[in-house]
Design the sequence.
């Protein structure tokens, strides 16, 4: 259907106006099409839904739309349906890059350049698919950037020294306020040297991030004969700091110096560092005898989730 302007209007989009008797102004002259065509459009929808027209029921257009949606979707309560624009504004789902590790392989093709490659898919709000197109950015020397994506601006490089991005330059690069949000995806950290050589750390974006593993090895002596410690750092490179970090660890002694045979497990575990790039921890043990290094093993069990 096309808009039918009042008769005599030079503007094809001219509005209709009411009569103004005191002002001696005539009301708009209505062409027949302005009355007929909307009725024809509405009846086409009602008829397509198999509903006979009625002058008594003024909800037939709504009924017809609901019936056509039900026919196209297999039925169900139409109040449960949601438009894509509404879903993209409401669903509490983090961005998810559809690669095995959840990362877009951003590269540095040459000094002073960062490239988002084409052909990689990710989901916004868990429902709307976006495919990357090649996008290049220039960098400056001695900078730290965040490469981000938002629905409105697409991909953009954010300078950590920019007070508009990092108010007062006061927040650390690892601060959780820079983590991926529902509508603001942190894709990579970009660091340049004084010669503008670029290092890119690509970050994993998935709605749910998990990591569970055991690290084990021989402890090292740190204080006196009985102070033993096993340290481990797990590199994760996520777009969000883990919200869950559970830890368990211990050391097992098999022999001790001069006092004979000893077998048992002891120790306590401590979280040393946790951010979107790594989780570091140690387990510590003090035995009541000086343990033989070759007879000791240690482990740390990590469980991370975001």
Sequence:
């Amino acid at each position: 259907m096309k808009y039918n302007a009042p008769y005599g209007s030079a503007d094809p989009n001219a509005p209709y106006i009411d009569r103004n008797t005191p002002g001696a102004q005539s009301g708009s002259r209505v062409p027949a099409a302005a009355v007929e065509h909307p009725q024809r459009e509405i009846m086409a929808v009602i008829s397509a839904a198999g509903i006979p027209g009625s002058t008594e029921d003024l909800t037939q257009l709504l009924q017809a739309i609901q019936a056509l949606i039900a026919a196209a979707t297999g039925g169900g309560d139409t109040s449960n349906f949601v438009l894509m624009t509404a879903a993209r504004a409401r669903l509490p789902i983090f961005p998810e890059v559809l690669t095995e590790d959840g990362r877009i392989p951003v590269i540095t093709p040459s000094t002073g350049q960062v490239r988002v490659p084409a052909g990689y898919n990710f989901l916004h709000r868990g429902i709307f698919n976006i495919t990357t197109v090649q996008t290049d950015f220039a960098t400056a020397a001695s900078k730290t950037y965040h490469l981000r994506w938002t629905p409105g601006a697409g991909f953009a490089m954010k300078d950590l020294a920019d007070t508009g991005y990092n108010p007062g330059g006061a927040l650390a690069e690892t601060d959780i306020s820079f983590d991926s949000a529902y509508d603001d995806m942190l894709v990579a950290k970009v660091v340049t040297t004084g010669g503008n050589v670029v290092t890119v750390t690509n970050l994993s974006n998935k709605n749910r991030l998990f990591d569970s593993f055991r690290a084990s090895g021989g402890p090292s002596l740190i204080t006196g004969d009985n102070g033993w410690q096993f340290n481990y750092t797990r590199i994760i490179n996520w777009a969000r700091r883990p919200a869950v970090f559970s830890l368990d660890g211990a050391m097992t002694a098999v022999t001790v110096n001069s006092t004979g045979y000893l077998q048992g497990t002891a120790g306590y575990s401590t979280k040393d560092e946790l951010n979107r790039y790594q989780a570091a921890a140690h387990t510590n043990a003090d035995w009541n005898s000086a343990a033989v290094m070759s007879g000791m093993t240690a482990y740390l069990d990590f469980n991370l989730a975001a």
